[in-house]
């Protein structure tokens, strides 16, 4: 049942814990395959796992760990992990092989001669398009990216910087997805979309599987700290692909004892939240006007929804200033904690944790979250300052301040 309290809305969900789908899509073998592929990408290295131990102490939990995807390759966001793995699988399929292929081979003249000209295409609200443009350029293929008219210039420039053609489409992200799907048929482009729809699930599945490299790395890093698994995972959702990959990976790894999964969205674009509330995929209409550009999606991905519906524990929607507060906490941490550059979509989970630890947190939510001094919370900083101008507006100019009545966080 939906509850409205304070400045956020929440749903305590009773998932079926049917992990069949998660185990099929996100088995450890698949995650290892993705990791094996990503390791070959020039410049690949593990992103850091940051421990915010002072903040954890302040919030009364054992640990807060941030997987810092701002440092992923040169791309400032996690997204390339999905897009590159999808391109890899697409090319393998086109070559008619199940064999592992090297990055070098995929770039080679021999491979290009076999496959001929290919143009990859996708809609984006910024980061996915940047990842696809980069991976296409690395592998030597053409790329066309559609963005919607609210997409900021720095995001567009970044995509063009990797040689892609960028078209600006009327409407929002979901309109851009629909438009490129139509145009791809006309021009014979190959759509590499991170969201799924009826009859289009294979590529979005590969994209979600590509994200599991991030989680496999995080597991290794946590193990190095003597932590076998996080007790809580907070993850942000746009169309839900990253959230489903994260939840699915951990549900498959620990089917009998999964972490608690908390899914966070902006109040202006809560398509996963509305879908869980209604028990079926539900679109959110309107201009999706949120500072969290990466999460500004109105149509959930159906394959992601199924995983989240079966396994997610708590769904929360928060106002924009929750993300802005998360960005400020990360960039200006407590003494002793390292700083993290995090963009709006990257920081919202930490902002949400901070909000939820307020003493005002309703009892049923507190019970459902079960955050205590034994909790180790994992989050993904999904982007750095992917829009540096907006980043400075928030951090330097104090854009989206927390309203005064919500500034008195009482955590004890
Ligand atoms: C920075 C960032 N974080 C999170 C997400 C959410 O991912 P998904 O759309 O798979 O839910 C996106 C999506 O573009 C993003 O760019």
Tell me what the structure shows.
The structure is a single chain. This protein is an alpha/beta fold and 412 residues long. It folds into two domains: 2-77 and 207-406, Rossmann fold, CATH 3.40.50.1100; 80-202, 3-Layer(aba) Sandwich (Rossmann fold), CATH 3.40.50. Helices cover 44% and strands 15% of the residues. The chain has 17 helices and twelve strands. The strands form two sheets. It has an eight-stranded mixed β-sheet with strand order 1-2-11-10-9-12-4-3, sandwiched between helices. A four-stranded parallel β-sheet has the order 7-6-5-8, sandwiched between helices. β9 (232-236), α11 (241-253) and β10 (260-266) form a beta-alpha-beta unit. α4 crosses α7, α4 (80-95) crosses α10 (202-224) and α10 (202-224) packs across α11. It is globular and about 65 Å long. It starts with a strand and ends in a 17-residue tail after the last helix. The model has no long low-confidence stretch (mean pLDDT 96). The chain binds pyridoxal-5'-phosphate.
- Please tally the helical runs, counting DSSP H or I stretches of 4 or more residues: 17
CATH architecture of the largest domain: 3-Layer(aba) Sandwich
What is the overall shape? globular
The residue-averaged pLDDT reads: 96
The biggest beta sheet, please? 8 strands, mixed
Helical residue percent?
A: 40-55%
* Structural class label: alpha/beta
Bound molecules: pyridoxal-5'-phosphate
CATH class of the largest domain: Alpha Beta
Features:
412 residues, alpha/beta, Rossmann fold, 2 domains, eight-stranded mixed β-sheet, four-stranded parallel β-sheet, 44% helix, globular, binds pyridoxal-5'-phosphate
